[in-house]
Amino acid sequence: MRPGPRNLITDVPGLRVGHATDEAAGTGVTTILTDSAWVGAVDVRGGGPGVRETDTLAPENLVPGVHAVVLSGGSVFGLAAADGVVARLSVRGVGLKLAPEGKALPIVPSAILFDLAGEGDKDWGEMPPYRALGLASVDAAEEDFALGSVGAGRGARAGQVKGGIGSVSLDLGEGLMVGALAAVNPVGSVFMPDGKTFWAWPFEIDGEYGGAAPDGIPLAHDPMPAEGRLTRPRAGTNTTLVVVATNAALDKGEAKRVAMMAQDGIARAVRPAHTPFDGDIVFAIAGDAVALPADAGRQREILRIGSAAADCVARAIARGVFHAR
Amino acid sequence: MRPGPRNLITDVPGLRVGHATDEAAGTGVTTILTDSAWVGAVDVRGGGPGVRETDTLAPENLVPGVHAVVLSGGSVFGLAAADGVVARLSVRGVGLKLAPEGKALPIVPSAILFDLAGEGDKDWGEMPPYRALGLASVDAAEEDFALGSVGAGRGARAGQVKGGIGSVSLDLGEGLMVGALAAVNPVGSVFMPDGKTFWAWPFEIDGEYGGAAPDGIPLAHDPMPAEGRLTRPRAGTNTTLVVVATNAALDKGEAKRVAMMAQDGIARAVRPAHTPFDGDIVFAIAGDAVALPADAGRQREILRIGSAAADCVARAIARGVFHAR
Which chain regions cross the lipid bilayer (chains A, B) (predicted)? Predict the structure, then answer.
């Protein structure tokens, strides 16, 4: 079982990722673009989420697919990033068309993380930078992209250490690919009680986050991380934002199940997770390149994709911290 | 950080647990009795749940508390176990009273697991044993109770090995206690890829499930457990059923958050978890012995209780398998 050639979410064909980073403000935006309307789902499990267009994704609702997913710093101000993405995609003709000559209506779900307490000049008055960062993130979108302290991960913190953007993939064979991208900003710790071994160590492939081997690891009896590694338990200040992707042709309910299973990757890479202070949102998007069987084997394939997604999320989280500077 | 004196969910004062086991049929019922109407919540995350009285627990709904939680084998037939518990508690005067002379109406949420494919005579025609087992489980309720292949865990399987009932507690100090009880029957494996090290090893206290030390553990790259450890991916045949309890005075929404965080214990102890084939239900119940602060520190206490609950769930799952025969 191997990653794809890039070991990035863009190993799922049809995806591009663009970062836009405001170094002066210490914040940014990360946008995942799909090459058509992909099936989308979301699973919100944190106690302090900040989102837009998530109800749009409910299986019982109308809209068939998404054209991009936007992750942003900036807390509530970052919700404007999707405005920029919507505007730029629309003028390029990307989006739903309700009439042949009508405007293209891009469906762009989005989630934000809190990075306002970090370094950088946030004195933007009534002109936060996020709409412009959203516009720029579309132009920046490529199959290759940076990890660590860029885009939505620019100002992220993971417990007491720098957080950032992480991404990985897993090739399930026969053309089936799963990938994840995480903006890592949780209240919990990504490290075991020794302060250096990633919780996600059992899932690492080829030293992708430094080769974390278990060697005399202290046991984790205290549910609160020791020595103040739990630093900022304030409402709305933390979250892990995740996008998982596959080229399997899932329906909306199946994509939701994959998003739900992918939350387990947060549970395995961050402790504690899903707290009242986190957002902890997983989007799942699915292209339609690989058809799944229609018979009883179908749900087993959903299980396999969901389990791979959970592993990819755990790896992406550790990798995001590993690459943060 | 230590368990309570019994290292069982009944270290939370006010709880008793009763098993009723039908050895001939290879199934059973486990009932958790509260000493008054405890606040209750539920979080359903598996793809194949079987429950009753769960919508009753929604924060927006009327009923203020629960008098028992029933876990049962028997799949859909096991939902009758709560009938027996309701009947016996009511004649003893336990339950809501809508009028002074009215019948007591016990609120008894319940969840079932599938054990019908296991050993034992299930040829019960129109008279499944679960109502009678429910009645008996009330009489059997004590603060001390058995672990392993008893009650709702009698016919449980955890991947390729015997599942069972596990329970632990954690003393958070200053009178605050958290405990968990799990009926362990997941499709996923509780063991790492070496087939012997519990996923939950980092959380073990005092060798409570055999002293699982990490020593040359193979890394877990394949999201599907190797060598057929994933044996029964059929709809409705697997689940981990969990009750977590605390004596902290939570409201319904807070109990729900604790149930949500406690699901992470399943994620850390079972891989894969929350699959289309699992039920994966966590009930959280809360007495009112320990008041939490009303100020900003309150949510931090919720975080601590939720994180402890997640750890207790991981430990209870491993312990249930360890004690199964």
Answer: none
